[in-house]
Design brief:
about 100 residues, 5 strands
Amino acid sequence: MTRKQAEQHLKGRKPGSFIVRESKKELDHVVLSVLKKDMGLFNGLIKHKHGLFVLQGQTKPFKSIEEVINGCMTDKALTKGFGLPIMLVLPPAKKHIDLNASSCV
């Protein structure tokens, strides 16, 4: 899913709605796309290094993408880029991403 497709998918949703998509530029990384309060889109790279995941602009590592997402739902320090807790919005299923896997598929 491209950035533009993510924007279209989140259009008309509530601020805080998000999706996790594969990065087209950074292999083995995914992007957290969040609809911000101003209805703009935050796109934060979730980097995968040495079996851990780190959200762009943050230093706290997580064991899984699921933990990054849970952190963004509860930890205000992680939501600085988009200014509110996030809510899951599932995109149309094409590929399965195992959130508990040590690498992204």
